[in-house]
Amino acid sequence: MKIATYNVNGVNGRLPVLLRWLKEEAPHIVCLQELKAPQDKFPEVAIRELGYDSVWFGQKSWNGVAILSRVGEIHETRRGLPEDPDPTQSRYLEAAVSGIIVAGLYLPNGNPRPGPKFDYKLDWFERLIEHAGTLIGSGLPVVLAGDFNVMPTSADVYKPERWLDDALFAPEVRALHARLIDQGWTDSLREMHPGEMIYTFWDYFRNAYARNAGLRIDHLLLSPALAKRLEAADVDRHVRGWEKTSDHAPAWIRLAD
């Protein structure tokens, strides 16, 4: 089974890119972020024509997450985090799909730091850690997939010295990510590429993609029940080079049956 996460940066504006990638790579389950579309404007029909069922949590102009599946029904289990510090923001969607709990998330960016946006990021991350603890405590096969807006280590960012004041690389945020991992989650991309500079995001500015000046901020974290099935993990980096594409590339894992 192939599970992917992709920050599409506008699901309708980038729909040709999304559909092309789905057709070419055919992941079984997909978590999407930054839909930037209200609930009634999600392109359900176009996605269904490629064989995918979908559930989504939209928001006009901002945020928004979705789960797609071509391997069975999607049974939604949660929309929004428990005690979400701002439930008006569409950032978390959870469902049971083909025997797996799939949690798709879009963690706040948090810039500028310091400030209220950074405080919100820390609060949201705390709520995520609390809920993730209940998921991993269940013993069920769970994947936490999405745009976490955090580079966990210096190996996850081009020229880390330039990002020391940024909310994506702040010590407080990396400490929260470490607490999350310490619950027992496996960082699948890092597990399969332990010493590699592997990125999932390249800015539109300063020719970042061509220079491979990237960040690894999109992650797929696996509970112990899924981690033992991990066979491969990678990034469809070439998608970032397509015309009118997102500034993110899809990241994915392959699990043994």
Question: How would you portray this structure in words?
Answer:
This protein is of the alpha+beta class and 257 residues long. The chain has a single domain (2-255), classed as 4-Layer Sandwich (Deoxyribonuclease I, Chain A), CATH 3.60.10. Helices cover 24% and strands 26% of the residues. Strands 3-4-2-1-14-13 form a 6-stranded mixed beta sheet. The chain has a 6-stranded mixed beta sheet with strand order 5-6-7-8-12-9. Helix 3 (116-137) links the parallel strand 7 and strand 8. Helix 3 (116-137) packs parallel to helix 4. The chain starts with a strand and ends with a strand. The mean pLDDT is 97. This is Exodeoxyribonuclease III. InterPro entries: AP_endonuc_1, AP_endonuclease_F1_CS, Endo/exonu/phosph_ase_sf, Endo/exonuclease/phosphatase, ExoIII-like. Its cofactor is Mn(2+); Mg(2+). It is an enzyme of class 3 (hydrolase).
Question: Which features does this protein show?
Answer:
single chain; 257 residues; alpha+beta; Deoxyribonuclease I, Chain A; 6-stranded mixed β-sheet; 7 helices; 24% helix; 26% strand; globular
